[in-house]
Fold:
Amino acid sequence: MAPDAQISRLRPGRRTDIRRENERTILDAAEKVFAEAGFGGATMQLIADMAGLPKANLHYYFATKEDLYRKVVQQIFEIWLDAAACFDNAPGPVEGIGAYVDAKMDISRTYPHGSKVWASEVMHGAPVIQDYLETTLRDWTEGRIAVIQRWIDEGKMAPVDPRHLLYLLWATTQHYADFGHQIQTLNNGQPLSDRHWAEAKASVKMIVLRGIGAI
Amino acid sequence: MAPDAQISRLRPGRRTDIRRENERTILDAAEKVFAEAGFGGATMQLIADMAGLPKANLHYYFATKEDLYRKVVQQIFEIWLDAAACFDNAPGPVEGIGAYVDAKMDISRTYPHGSKVWASEVMHGAPVIQDYLETTLRDWTEGRIAVIQRWIDEGKMAPVDPRHLLYLLWATTQHYADFGHQIQTLNNGQPLSDRHWAEAKASVKMIVLRGIGAI
DNA sequence: GTCTATATTTCGATAGAC
DNA sequence: GTCTATCGAAATATAGAC
Structure:
């Protein structure tokens, strides 16, 4: 009897664990390669090498290159949605938008690859996740616009267009991930330090919160 | 004698005109295809079809796919540099930054493809134009930081970090080009109208100029 | 300077032994 | 579940007639 079969009987969840582990390894490698090369520039061979697996194994876990790509895009989108919780239930813009900027900036630092894959997908016309834009993202946006409008009506901030304020927040926070290479080059080739990131967060919050008349 | 040779002798500049015309046609087509498909996703065949020329002609005017791509990236970079003129010689941030936002927003509307190609190039680590980042862009940035710092010292605006202010301006203005598809989707699938663009400009300028304490 | 035909390479995907 | 070998399609680039 093969050793694998023995272990499989001793630990019934082993087979599922292997699947989950390998899928995680492949997804992480894919996120990096898709971000660095784009969908067209990425090759299954590159992803396989990055994951340390034979190319055929990728096709065993993900039927096609597009399936794998779709999973990568979904990941970053869910991370952003989760981070938006701090936006709601906030008493006013200082707390709500301040916390949202902090969360988005942390994500840009932690998941720069995912942010780039999303940006690339949208830039190319969202061929894979157009339905997300039209349903989940649209609903989320309308909900946050309502919150901002309420703050305006309550006199907690100046009457700026909530939609363009959201665009400014998305653009600025994601810029630190998507254009991270440019920022690093302008920082003498060095990655931003903890202090740099803290300054970036503070600068963005200062300009935005004062810009909307909240402080 | 072939008709071409006749014309060539009657109008000595004809041959150069044909070259310039064809190069322009190919560059325009390439900009669009590179923006929509990325470098890896773009094919010489797609660009040739878009330009209405046989694929072999592209290789006659541009030796390789990468040569053609490099020219496209250089184009948008020069357009942005030209637009920065309004930044200098301005008496203060209201005029200088206000004009810069207007100019960058106009470019985002007029050259959305070029902006996307640039974004894609930087996101992938600037493999082709890294030297531009380290020379021209770095010099340009340092110069504008000095201008902003002078405005701060003269009490014309609040003491915000000039570097992060520039990043916010770049991110926000280019967002309307790079994420134009997302913005259009959130605008009920309709492109932004003249009125929409005017509102976007006004919103950005209002938030930024008030955010830096200039108004 | 133009264009058809093709050489050469590379990629996504699969077959089939283990 | 793993991995080697390979197929068929598609891409870049070029050769050579016109």
About this structure: Chain B is about 75% helix and 0% strand. Residues 4, 15, 18-19, 22, 53-57, 60 of chain B lie near DNA strand C (CB under 10 Å from a C1').
